[in-house]
Structure formats: C-alpha cells, structure tokens
Design goal:
By secondary structure, the protein is α/β, with parallel strands linked by helices. The protein has helices spanning about 90-95, 110-115, 130-140, 160-170, 210-220; strands spanning about 5, 25-30, 40-45, 50-55, 75-80, 90, 105-110, 130, 145, 175, 185-195, 200-210. The protein contains five helices and twelve strands. Helix 3 packs parallel to helix 4.
C-alpha cells in the first residue's frame, strides 16, 4: 500500500498568508538542559500550512470545524492537473475534465512548484478557483475542493470573497496548501484529518493519498488458465 504525504511541513520558516500570525515553535523544556523530557510550545494561525476551512471562516452562523462531518475528509478523490488561461480556474477550464463521478477534487497547478523548490516567499499571483469555477463545481455536486496554495480564492479577489462564500456557504469542504508536486493526476483515496477545535474557523491538517489504481489492480481476481482436456479415443 503506497501512501503519499501531501502535507506541508510546519516550521518557523513556512510561508503564511499576509497578515496571518507567523509560526513560532519553541522548545522551552529540554532534556539537554536537564529537564526530564522535551516539551515544545507552538504559536500558529488556524490557516497555517496544509489546512482546512470551516464554514464559520466566512459564514458567521456557519459550522465550526468540530461540527464538520469527518466522512467527507476520507474517501475516493481525483487529482486533476489544470493549466488555466488566467490565474483563476474558471468553468471553461473545467468543462473538458472528466471527474469520473468523484465528489472530492484536488487541483494540481504550477503552484506546487513552490513546494517542490522550497520557495517560502508569498506569491500574490498564485492559481486559484474563480467564481464560475466554483459554481461549476457545485453543479457537479463536488463536496470537497483541494488546492495547492494557501487559499482556494485569489489574493486579488473582491473584499467580500465570493468564492469562499459560494463554496463554504454550500457546505463544500475546502482544503488548502496541499503539496501535489510529486502526485500524478488520477484517482486516489484521500485521508485528511482536521483537529477538533471547538467552533474553529479552520485548522491545520495532515493529508495523504493512497493510490487506488494499484489497489484495484491487486484486488482483481486472477484468471485461472484454461485447461485443455483431451478426450480419450474409444
């Protein structure tokens, strides 16, 4: 069983959204200093690294992250590679793509090159989902959208954030900051677990993919070779 980790490593150097808290991980209690064990202290924002948004993030009376059903975070998904005409993935960029009936869709774009190259400078022109793209995903009854940068919506989006509100207001789960640089387009099983934070607006997650193609091939029963039985002549 091959598992592919698609999470970003959280460290003090990780890129964060402009205005969000910087990561501060310290080790105040250390065995090297004579303490009985090592105990770290973390200061991070809810939307750090690979993370998920709760509806409450942009819908004031929406569900907190502890109220979002876990089953949507685990199950079959499809990774699709998209090269949009602009910095937004719109409906026209998606109409030729066969989602194969999947309700969990992860978008691989050139954003993932940032993670592959270790680039921790914030890119204001990252590829995101546009409003018509979000509406198209809703028509396809997609229940989870994953993207390979820190937001599903463009940095240059309008102040009222129509894409976030369209998706989260429709109970679509959003997972952001995925590292898909070493993932081929195709069908997988998504395993993505959010922290249970009371009425949280979001939380970092550990996300992984299991290759369903190999699993399906192994599960197919092997055909027995045909036996050629010759009848004896009387």
């Amino acid at each position: 069983m091959k598992i592919k980790d698609i999470s970003l490593t959280i460290s003090n150097d990780i890129v964060t959204w402009p205005g969000d808290p910087k990561v501060n991980i310290q080790l105040p209690i250390q065995m090297k200093k004579g303490d009985a064990c090592n105990v770290s202290r973390w200061e991070i924002g809810a939307h750090t690294g690979t993370h998920t948004d709760a509806p409450f993030h942009f819908v004031d009376d929406g569900k907190g992250i502890d109220e979002v059903p876990l089953d949507i975070y685990i199950g079959p998904c499809i990774v699709v590679e998209v090269k949009p005409k602009t910095i937004n993935i719109e409906a026209d960029d998606l109409k030729h793509i066969d989602f194969k009936g999947h309700k969990r869709v992860l978008f691989k774009t050139k954003n993932s090159l940032h993670w592959k190259n270790g680039n921790m400078e914030f890119d204001k022109d990252f590829i995101a989902v546009g409003l018509t793209g979000a509406e198209y995903l809703l028509k396809k009854k997609v229940k989870l959208v994953g993207v390979d940068y820190l937001s599903v919506e463009s940095f240059h989006a309008e102040f009222d954030h129509p894409v976030h509100k369209k998706l989260l207001g429709s109970q679509v789960v959003v997972v952001e900051g995925l590292n898909l640089s070493d993932v081929r387009p195709g069908e997988y099983e998504l395993i993505c677990m959010p922290l249970k934070i009371k009425h949280g607006d979001g939380t970092p997650v550990r996300a992984a993919l299991r290759d369903l193609t190999n699993a399906k091939a192994k599960s197919k029963p092997k055909k027995r070779p045909a036996v050629n039985k010759k009848r004896k002549k009387k």
